[in-house]
């Protein structure tokens, strides 16, 4: 199937899924459930591309399995964090800001996620259509980056979850493990994940000029997390609720893990 046709099917599917989640949240009042569905559905898009593309079969298999594992792990983590709990503060603030137009604007916001997902899905689409297999070295590099990103993000999520589970840490700032070296190590490894597919598109027999499109997903993800819906919203809430967070911001790297600075 031509890549534009596969992308069109993926976009329609995402729009339908996100519209259904929007309709569901009208009753549940928990728009945060879009987060796990986003991860699950984007992993599904990779499997769709791997199934419909006519590129190198081994590369398609790597892309499909890699993205499916990523989406399943992240989606399951976000589902446990959101299902049955109060709506995430980010979405509550949007409801309050939009007022009477909240339902309409939330639908537009959800559909925007479909557009963003399509841009991110270039990481799966381009290598799925490469004519020939990548060299073994490129596959090894992609696998190493992918494994490090999945393991790192899972570790950061678990360390934060364990910290919050201890009642003695209520209102405190997590500096356990990776969180000592980065205020958002989970975001860092999420960005790294989108780099993992780049080696699968380059080299002889690769995607040619389209390989440049592989730079968009990691750059877009980093921009979204650092400037839009990630760090700004999370840190505004944390600074309001957690004692010592201002000092944590002064001494600890925002994204890339790095030894903390002296608080003075």
Automatic annotation (TrEMBL):
UniProt-listed InterPro entries: UstE-like (IPR010721)
Keyword Magnesium tagged: no
Gene3D superfamilies associated with the record: 1.20.120.1630
Annotated keywords: Membrane, Transmembrane, Transmembrane helix
PROSITE patterns, alphabetized: S5A_REDUCTASE
GO cellular component: membrane
Residue spans crossing the bilayer: 6-24, 107-129, 135-156
Protein name (database record): 3-oxo-5-alpha-steroid 4-dehydrogenase
